[in-house]
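Lecture notes, part 5. Sequence design as translation. It can be helpful to think of inverse folding as translation between two languages: the language of shapes and the language of residues. The source text, in structure tokens, appears below.
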């Protein structure tokens, strides 16, 4: 059975331009993630199955959030691979944060292969009501009759 893949040529050109450093069968290409806003914070969930929790690093520097993780394969001595489709190596993802987040209160957790990062919205960026102050007292002026 022949399969037609209209993107095969585009993938080939991209691999040639980016080089094999963009990802190989034994090295990770990217870290899939979801990012959404929930109330007064953003939540980022990144899939990192099989990653040792001790290798996960989350840092913020000059408005850039960096996620790093390492997944190692078992020793290859005396191993005859039948199939090798799982990526190993260092995963890294960087995101630019806007001025509207509170970088001091970012928190992260890692459960069941998912890294969750909570990014609070800064108080100054939250919607707020503006109080309207009144001016001087309003007086009623009545016109007098001239005699």
């Amino acid at each position: 059975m022949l399969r037609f893949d209209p993107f095969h040529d585009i993938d080939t050109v991209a691999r040639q331009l980016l080089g094999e450093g963009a990802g190989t069968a034994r090295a990770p290409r990217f870290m899939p993630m979801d990012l959404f806003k929930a109330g007064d914070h953003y939540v980022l969930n990144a899939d990192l199955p099989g990653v040792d929790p001790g290798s996960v690093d989350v840092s913020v520097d000059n408005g850039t959030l960096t996620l790093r993780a390492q997944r190692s394969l078992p020793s290859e001595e005396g191993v005859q691979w039948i199939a090798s489709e799982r990526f190993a190596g260092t995963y890294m993802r960087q995101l630019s944060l806007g001025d509207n987040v509170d970088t001091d209160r970012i928190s992260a957790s890692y459960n069941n292969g998912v890294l969750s990062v909570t990014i609070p919205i800064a108080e100054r960026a939250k919607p707020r009501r503006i109080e309207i102050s009144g001016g001087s007292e309003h007086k009623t002026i009545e016109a007098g009759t001239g005699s």
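The translated text above is only one of many valid answers, since several sequences can fold into similar shapes. Strands lie at 33-38, 41-47, 57-61, 64-71, 89-96, 107-111, 114-120.
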